[in-house]
Amino acid sequence: MTDPRPRIAVVTFPGSNDDGDARLALDLLGAEAVATWHTATELPAGIAGVVLPGGFSYGDYLRCGALARVAPVMDAIRSFAADGGPVLGICNGFQILCEAGLLPGVLRANRQVEFVCADVEVTVESTATPFTRDCRPGETLVIPIKHGEGNWVADDALFADVVARGQVVLRYATDVNGSRDRVAGVASEDGNVLGLMPHPEHAVDPLLGPTGGLPLLHGLVTAARERLAAPV
Amino acid sequence: MHVTVLIRPKTGILDPQGEAVQASLATLGFAVTGARVGRLVELELDARDRASAHADVERMCSELLANPLIESFEILTADA
User: Fold this and answer.
1) Which of residues 39-78 of B touch A (CB under 8 A)?
2) Block means of pLDDT (10 residues each) for chain A, length 232 residues?
3) Which domain, by its residues, includes A182?
4) pLDDT tens-digit series, residues B26-71
5) For A106, which of B19, B65, B70 is closest by C-beta distance?
6) B39 to chain A: which residues are within 8 Å by CB?
7) What is the three-class DSSP state of A3?
8) Total domains present in chain A
9) How high is the pLDDT of residue A142?
């Protein structure tokens, strides 16, 4: 392959624990994953994409993601996102992006007050994001979830806006955690920031189970590669 | 100055934690018709007076301590 390997930052906060798998998956998909510490005030040189991985940053103290969103690296990520850079938040990363105001809504305790851990079917509701453009509208992806606080909440007014703007990107095929309208993933208005509770980085190798994460991460890698190629 | 912040799940917001607590209280034989679980934050801060302390803590609540989408907060300042 002659395409360049785009550099994608995987941010580690105290308590992140899926950062290693995220880096492995990105490397597998032709990117160069760059481990990035939460205290960084700038993203590493040449970064063309960002992943906020899963885990339990700051022990989920106060609210999931609330303390991580004030980490120094978040200012750099905010600027990168405002510039159109692709940012993917997975599980705790999704919670952080919501707390940071980069994505709408908030994640709360699962309706059943149980930690859920399962391979689930999610439906692609929007292909108008870099992450889902390899998918067909309505396509079903099988991706694992593992969370205690994945119940996405938005009030009626916010929810109506989010739906009207096409920001609902992924829905669970069945209700798994009480999430409003079975929302599994939402994007920013511009589509370049996506948060989702399912873990695409755990679903890239058939040896380990389903591979529904491949198109989403491939979309991120492609977007990062295009960002590098674009004239500055 | 000592300031106490009470953070509550907003009215109308589902509170699975409160429901679980209510169910457990029922198991113990208590007749409880509702339970909501919030959070309490105790702060010590240097402030000129009660009004400025209140203003500071209000900003802390908006920026970090509470999420306005799901939580309301109440600031209690002790008499100096």
Assistant:
1) 39, 64-65, 67, 69-70
2) 83 98 98 98 97 97 96 98 98 98 97 94 98 97 98 96 98 98 98 98 96 98 93 64
3) 7-229
4) 999 999 999 999 999 999 999 889 999 999 999 999 999 999 999 9
5) B70
6) 62
7) coil
8) 1
9) 98
Question: How many residue contacts between A and B have a Cβ separation below 8 Å?
Answer: 37
Average pLDDT, chain B: 93
pTM, two decimal places: 0.95
A-chain residue closest to B12, CA distance: A155
When pLDDT is cut at 50, 70 and 90, the band that residue B79 belongs to is: low
Chain B residue with CA closest to A64: the answer is B67
SS3 A172: strand
- State the catalytic residues of A: 91, 199, 201
DSSP 8-state symbol, A44: P
Asked if the interface predicted TM-score (ipTM) of this complex is over 0.90, the answer is no
For chain A, how far is it from start to end, CA to CA, in angstroms? 24
The string of DSSP letters for B26-50 reads: HHTT---S-----EEEEEE---SSH
Structural domains in chain B plus CATH codes: 2-77 (3.30.1280.10)
Neighbours of B23 (CB within 10 A): 12
Question: Does A224 reside within a domain?
Answer: yes
Mutate one of A102, A113, A114 to test the B interface: name it (highest B CB count within 10 A). A113
Helix (H) or strand (E) holding A156: helix A156-164
Interface test with A, best of B5, B64, B73 (most A CBs within 10 A): B64
Task: State the CATH number of the domain containing residue A44.
Answer: 3.40.50.880
pLDDT surpasses 90 at B25: yes
